[in-house]
Batch of 2 targets.
Target 1
Amino acid sequence: MSELNSKQWFTEIFQPSGSAFSLKIHQKLTEVQSPFQHIEIYQTTDFGNLMVIDGCTMVSTRENFLYHEMMSHPALFTHPNPKNVVIIGGGDCGTLREVLKHRSVESVYQIDIDEQVTRLAEQYFPELCASNHDPRAFIMFDDGIKFMQETAAESVDVIIVDSTDPVGPGEGLFNRAFYQSCLQALKPGGILVQQSESPLIHMGLLNDMRQAMKDAGFAALQTLNFPQMIYPSGWWTCTMARKDMVFAGFRRDDVMDAEFETDYYNADIHQAALALPNFMRRQLVG
Ligand code: SAM
C-alpha cells in the first residue's frame, strides 16, 4: 500500500489468517498508552469513530449495534428472569446500554480493567455511554478475573464477558479456572455468555473455550453466530454456557413484546443465530 494510501486508511493485519481489514480515515483523533493497552481513536470517512486497542479494531460508531445486541439480548431473553448481571470488559459501555433496556434487570456491574477505555468512550462514543448514569449501573475498573473470584456464590443471573482477545490482559478470561469462578458466582440456571471469536478462523480457540467451560462444570453450551464487519473474517460468535440445566428455547413472546428498540436482534435473528453451518456442527466440541 503506498505511503499516501496508508495515511488515508486504518488497516488491521491479521497474520494468522493472512487477511487484513481497512477503513478509510480522515484523521487519528487521539491515542493513549494506558497501564494495560494502547488505545487509538480514529475519525473514519464512513463509519463514524473507530476505537482500536493494541492494533485490533474494537468498535465503530456505525456498526457496533450488531455486536452489542448479540452479546446481550440472546442471553437475557434465554434466562427466565434476569435481575443481576455482570459484564466483564465492555469498557466502551455499548453492552451495558443494551442490558439496561431490560426492565427485569435490577443491577449491572461492569468491570473493565482499563478506565481509559471508558473515558475515551465517553468522549468519542457518547451514544454508547447514554445509560451510564442509570441507578442500576455500577461501573468499576478492576481485573475481571479477580472480580469473579471474589463474587459471592450464587449471586448472579447472567455474566457477559465482552473482552478483548485471549492475549494480554484478556488472556485469563478464557480458561477453566475463570469459568469455575463464573460457575460458582452464578445462581442455578444462570448463564455465562462470552464473545467466542470467528468460526471461520478461530475454530481451535472456540473449541478450547467450549471444552474449558464443560470442564469447569457447565451443563450445556450454545454458540450463536452473527455478522461482525470490523473483526477478522467479518463473522463472529458468542457462546452461552448454562449452570445446572440445559437450554430450552428462549422467551420468544417477550422478545416480540419488547418495549425497547433494537437494530439487529429480533426473535427470528435469535433463532437463526443458533443455526450452525455443517462445518461447525462437525467440528464443535462439548
Ligand atoms: N468488542 C470487543 C471485542 O470483541 O474485541 C471488546 C470490546 S471491549 C473494548 C474489550 C475490553 O476488555 C477492553 O476495554 C479491555 O480493557 C477489557 N479487558 C481485557 N482484559 C480484561 C480483564 N482481565 N478484566 C477486565 N476487562 C478486561
Note: Residues 2-60 form a domain with the Spermidine Synthase; Chain: A, domain 2 fold (CATH 2.30.140.10).
Target 2
Amino acid sequence: MNKDRILVTGGVGYIGSHTVVELQKAGYPVVIIDNLSNSNRDVLDGIERITGIRPDFVEADCTDMEALKALFAKYPDIRGIINFAASKAVGESVQKPILYYRNNLNTLMNLLDLMPTHGVKGIVFSSSCTVYGEPDVNPVTEQSPIKTATSPYGNTKQICEEIITDVIRSGAPIKSVILRYFNPVGAHPSAEIGELPNGVPQNLLPYLTQTAIGIRKELSVFGDDYNTPDGSCIRDYIDVVDLAKAHVIAVERMLTEKSESSIEIFNLGTGNGLSVLQLINAFESATGVKVPHKIVGRREGDIEKVWANPAHANNVLGWTADTPIEDTMRNAWAWQLKLRERGIM
Ligand code: NAD
Ligand code: WQD
C-alpha cells in the first residue's frame, strides 16, 4: 500500500535530514520545505546518496503563508507534517527575542491554520527537554513540572506546545505528537549527513570534534563544582538516528488512528545521564583521539543535571534509543573527518 506524503519543515537541517532518510527508508514520499537559514542544500545530495531517492524540495519560509498555500496546492497528497523548522540558538534568542518568537510561533501557527483545509491529519512537533528547566527529580517523565523558561528560545517551545493544545481543544480535526528531545548528537553512520553548526559551536559535541581535529585549541569544560559525581553537568545524549526513527513511528501512529488521544507527548532520551567528562572519555576511548580540554567556570544559565525517563516512548511507541554511545562518538568523528575531506572545515 502506498504511504501518505509527509511534509518535513526544516528537513535540510540536522535532525530533519536524518529523519527524511528514515522516512524514505520506511517508504514515505517526502517533501521538504526549508529556507536554508541554517543549512545547506548539499544535504539533499547526502540524503540521495544514502537512500537513492532525492526528496522533493521547496526553498521557502514557513512564516510566508502564501508560499505554504502554494506548496499545499502543488502537493495535495500531504497527510502528515513534521515541524522541525525553527531558530534554535539559545544565546542568540536572548539577543534577538522577536526573531525567535516570530519565526518559531508563526511557522507553527501557519501550519496549524492550513492543515484542516488541506486534509492534513497530523503534525509532529519538535519540542525539547528545555521545558523541564532544572528538574527537582531525575529522570524526568512527561508529567514532571514545566518550569519557567530561561530563554526566549525555551519559551517558544513552551508556547508552541500550548498553541497545539489550544488548537486541538478548539475542535480542529487534527492530531499532534509532541516530542521532547534531550541532547541529540552524532551523525549518520555513512558520514553523508551530520551536524553543521554555523560559526563557533555552542553545543558540546561539535565543539569537542572540532577540537579533536584541531580547528579549536581546547575544549572548555564549563564547571567541575556541580553536585554530580565528577562535578561536571549531566545530560542525556541521544543518537540522532535513534531520534529520527522515533519520528517515523510517531507519524505512523498519528496517521493510522493508533494514537490514544489527539495530543500525545513523549520524552525522547536514552534514560542514561552522562557527565561532560564522561562524554569526553567516551569519545577518546571510542576513537583513540585525544581531546585537549580544561576546566573553566560555569556557563551562565546551565542546568546542573537532566536526563529522561523514556519509559512512555519505550512502552507506547515500542521505541528505544539503543545505539551505544561509543558508536555515536565514532559516527560524530567520521562526520568531522568527512567535513575536512570535503574542504568544508
Ligand atoms: P537545524 O537548525 O539544523 O534545522 C532547522 C532547519 O529549519 C534549518 O535547515 C533551517 O534552515 C530551517 N528553518 C528555520 N526557520 C525556518 C523557516 N521559517 N522556514 C523554513 N525553514 C526554516 O536544527 P535542528 O538541530 O535540526 O533542530 C530541529 C528542531 O528540533 C528545531 O525545532 C529545534 O528547536 C528542535 N530541537 C533541537 C535540539 C538540538 O539540540 N539540536 C534539541 C531539542 C529540540
Ligand atoms: C551540554 C553540556 C555544558 C559546550 C542546549 C539547549 C537546549 C537543547 C539542547 C534545543 C552542558 C557543557 C558545552 C562547551 C561544555 N536544545 N559544555 N563546553 O546546554 O544541554 O542544551 O542544547 O532545544 O535547549 O539549551 O547543550 O551541548 O550546549 O551543553 O562544557 O564548550 O556540555 O555546560 O553541561 P545544553 P550543550
Note: Residues 97-114 form the longest helix (18 residues).
